[in-house]
């Protein structure tokens, strides 16, 4: 009689272990699927963030390019309106830079 009870308990334990194994397998699959979904969400969010930053960078670059052209035109107009003064200023700045470089090389 004790053997039957023991055998019954062992069979019941085996069945419980098999059920537990199936449940764990199901949970593992569910966790894997949730992780894959989360990873896809993170990837799409990162891609959207990169697109937005790239567009912002393009707009800033275009604005900087326009400002650079305007500044170059302003400088060209200033030089054109005072050509002798511009040449004298360029000569003076060149002379000053040469002296600074010469003094720096002596050290």
Structure explained in plain terms:
The protein has 107 residues and is mainly alpha-helical. It has one domain. Helix content is 96%, strand content 0%. The chain is built from two helices and no strands. Helix 1 packs across helix 2. The longest helix is centred in the middle third of the chain and has 80 residues. It starts with a helix and ends with a helix. The relative contact order is 0.03.
Number of helical segments with 4 or more residues: 2
Overall pLDDT score: 87
Number of domains: 1
* Rg over CA atoms: 39 Å
Q: Overall 3D geometry? A: rod-shaped
The amount of helix comes to: over 70%
Total count of strands = 0
- What pattern of helices and strands is seen along the backbone? HH
- Structural class designation: mainly alpha
Could you outline the blueprint of secondary structure elements for this entry?
Layout: H1 2-81, H2 83-105
Helix pairs in contact: 1-2
For this entry, give a set of tags:
107 residues; mainly alpha; 2 helices; 96% helix; rod-shaped
């Amino acid at each position: 009689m004790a053997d039957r009870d023991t055998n019954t308990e062992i069979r019941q334990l085996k069945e419980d272990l098999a059920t537990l194994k199936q449940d764990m397998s199901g949970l593992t699959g569910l966790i894997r699927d949730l992780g894959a979904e989360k990873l896809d969400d993170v990837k799409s969010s990162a891609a959207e963030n990169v697109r937005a930053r790239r567009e912002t960078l393009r707009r800033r670059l275009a604005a900087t390019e326009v400002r650079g052209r305007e500044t170059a035109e302003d400088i060209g107009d200033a030089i054109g309106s005072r050509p002798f003064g511009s040449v004298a200023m360029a000569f003076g700045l060149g002379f000053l830079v040469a002296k600074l470089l010469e003094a720096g090389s002596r050290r």
